[in-house]
Model the fold of this input.
Amino acid sequence: MSPTITTSSEANGNVSAATARAAASAAASAEAAGPPPVTMAKALNSALFDAMRADSSVLVFGEDVGMLGGVFRITDGLTATFGDQRCFDTPLAESGIVGMAVGMAINGMRPVIEMQFDAFAYPAFEQIVSHVAKMHNRTRGTVKLPLVIRIPYGGGIGGVEHHCDSSESYYAHTAGLKVYTPATVADGYRMLREAIDSDDPVVFMEPKKMYWTKDSVDLGELRRLHDAQGEGTTAGLGSEGRAAVARPGTDATLIAYGPSVPTALAAAEAAALEGRSLEVIDVRTIVPFDDATVCESVRKTGRAVVIAEAHGFASVSSEIVARVQERCFHYLAAPIRRVTGFDVPYPAPKLEKYYLPGVDRILDAVDDLQWEN
Amino acid sequence: MTISADHTAPDTTSPQEAPDNALNEAVKNFGITVEDYMLPARHQIQMVDPEGRLKPRGEQGTQPGHEYPVPGDRELLAAYEQLVVGRRVNDQNSALVRQGRMAVYPSSHGQEACQVAAALCLSDGDWMFPTYRDAVAVMTRGVDPVQVMTIFRGDWHGGYDPLEAKVGIQCTPLTTQLLHAVGVAHAAKLRGEDTVVLAMCGDGATSEGDFHEALNFAAVFHLPVIFFVQNNKYAISVPLAHQSVAPSLAHKAVGYGMAGERVDGNDVVALLAVLDRAVALARGGSGPLLVEANTYRMQAHTNADDDTRYRESAEVAEWRAKDPVNRMRTYLTGRGLLDDDGEARIAAHAELVAAQLRKGLSEDVPVDPQELFRHVFSSPTPQLREQSAFLADELARDAASTDSKEAGK
Done:
């Protein structure tokens, strides 16, 4: 089903180099802080473990998620720990996986299902758009669908065709779906727990190039914090609808989500060396979108660049530009710029570095923001 | 289990609990091979012929392992009453569409025996997953008729509570609901409940991908799902021959490792006999079953369709002679189970339901524009709250401008 993919973060040019730098600096600062570095993959895996331990209605299923532990190993050990009734492989049929999850959620379960790769999820599109997104609304709220659709997405791993799409805009465009995408190891844990707790269906987009990103995170502490908030009471307290200021700054705002956040952070780091202070906003949940935090930053800096791997045309990035422009027009010193993938089908690995937003392209866009001096 | 001599028997150490044993147990009880269990009988099961006569046992289409007892009189009388009510509901709804009180109604006129049997074979704790054409089945299951028809009245996409009724929403995208049925059955099985789920679709729908995925999932996970295919011969205008060249739709079952059966879909006696046994088998752990009902859509797809463009009136007339309601009336009257008083009582019941529909669908139910935003999520997002305020403001301004125009008159 899935060909071997290159997992080396060295394989693809400046983006990965920037990621590696960001990770290295995070790791360096972690030494002082204490807890050993853990990967995003481990954080997600721990979130699944803890959610399954906390609630017997949480089930995990998909393709290769059982004995193998998933092609990215995010479900590693779940079958061994919880048994093959709670974490199991299905026939290879994505519509079947999502459709069965809908029925299970109707009947009291909280399925957490895996689409093996972004571009393998499309057979399930009808179930997601026509049922997952609409069931609550069409039944006037009587049927809730507490299910999570985990989708590894984005590029940066040198994947072959159909293994590196940025499909978030399809889901974000569909009314009735929440779309989360973590950009830090800690958010990987926190946001997946929140998604599983949510009574609404969540499309959980995992930046696959960040599965091996390490950060110094105390997962036990995150678990205690989650448990202290209590199941079902995280709304308004957690990450949903709350963007994060990933790096404070004063001169311009970089708005990014998922895999573009480390790239934006690397660009801000480089800009700082040139004396420019860039604020980086991590959107975290595309739906619901945190207009307040994003606009507060843009009103403060007066300049903004939106960064996303996905094609720019009719995308999440175009939506963000439109929203900011509608709300912050009189604060803007320059038109908002975007650095996105080109409007071409996702390229082959050797062309990926020309397609993906990179540090230099972001810095060029920042230079274009009509500075006075 | 070995399907053919050169087909390697699958490893029975499936991740699910001892699945094959229950199937093999079922097969053993019938004293036939797995192939004979899974393949439909050579002929469709028919118990009462179109003239309303009980067929001799040897001519009912049964064969060893595919034998069906005739349901009890009480069950048959209850079914007849629902047939009459169902026919009245179909015709009343079509009239309401003609009068402009409903946007559309996909009638199951001619298919009432399938509708009634699909509901009556289930117990209270069971689930049904109907399509847009299965309103009569949903009502027979006990859901309030006006609530059922809300989907066609136009004020919301659905009117009944699926959880309370244990009936899925009447589904429009073909066969997508079969997978929901699989999920409901799977969840119930994991909790150790003995729920059976009946999943409905039509002949055209068997071409859809989700039909295949649902049958395969149900079989692989050994779930108590009965796939009930009403073969009414047309998918809007396209005849069955363009959908499938399989010997029958019931034959598709064997490819998934489940049992299939064909039944006369206008003979409620045979339908109940076959479905009752299917429910009992599924509840007992046999895994899923596929039942194909051979019936006919007597009217156009909906009021927006013109069936004279794609079929001959002679064909329709031929099926009119096989009418499920008349057939059952003749049979029950002949057996002395139904007299004029009984008929009058049942007709009164049907009129009561029709009056309920006329009243409920004639009421101008006020819509609340703010409800647009209320159920998208468990609680509205900030963006939906903004849009809700925008609409409220727009409506307030409209009302104010109307008021001032009125005042200026």
In short: The beta strands of chain B are 127-129, 197-202, 225-231, 234-235, 238-239, 259-264, 289-294.
